[in-house]
Amino acid sequence: MAGHSKWANIKHKKAAVDKKRGKIWTKLIREVTVAAREGKTSDPNASPRLRLAVDKAYAANMPKDTIERACKRGSGELGAENYNEVRYEGYGPGGVAIIIDTATDNVNRTVSEVRHALSKHGGNMGTSGSVSYMFNKLGVLSYAPGVNEDKLMDAALEAGADDVVMADDGSAEVLTTPDNYAELVATLTKAGLEPDDAEVTERADNLTAVDLENGERLLKLIDMLEELDDVQEVFHNGDIPVELLDDDEE
Q1: Sign of the C-alpha dihedral computed for residues 20, 22, 28 and 34 taken in this order
Q2: Structural domains of the chain in order of their starting residue, each with its CATH number
Q3: Cα 42 from chain centre
Q4: What is the pTM (predicted TM-score) of this model?
């Protein structure tokens, strides 16, 4: 991600999450359920993916009993939940590559809603694999401007991080593999370096710059997609003008 807009993107994302707290819980419950079904267990310690989903749910202040019920529904202990994971790929305004991960009990409904959102905002659906090759799955721990670079660098690399990237604004990102993500977060937090934001995400190898007009359309498209109940995550390679992200914070 372009150095000038890293932290603006994070602030924008966090603000969007705060505005959609109710929907976030719905999506997280579905994520926990799917992860429990995939791992065939309701025990987060027995499944790395379920552990990550449960940690995200706790981070969103979801009640413990709600999380436990979702785990048991997914594993079949409280009756099976029939969600299918489907990934859609396509392009947004300005040729931005987009990945849309869904968990759905009605594929026909979901694909129709995703296609409508894309077409409404100047995008189009692609075929499977048409853009996913541009992205890599990795863990990203983000730190606000002003973090102690030397301390972070030493602690992160000692804990097995792949890289520490400092931005022009003084913010930092620690990059790691998905498998090492949970342990790295725990280790750095224990060392007094709790990240301001942390996630396992799909990160594009290269970004596509968009102008203000297409940047506005892209943000509206992302908002519309994330409002869909079946959509779990939206990833893109758009380099959105920082002015748009700053304006959204005001």
Answers
A1: negative
A2: 3-75 (1.10.10.200), 84-133+205-249 (3.30.70.980), 134-204 (3.30.70.980)
A3: 23
A4: 0.82
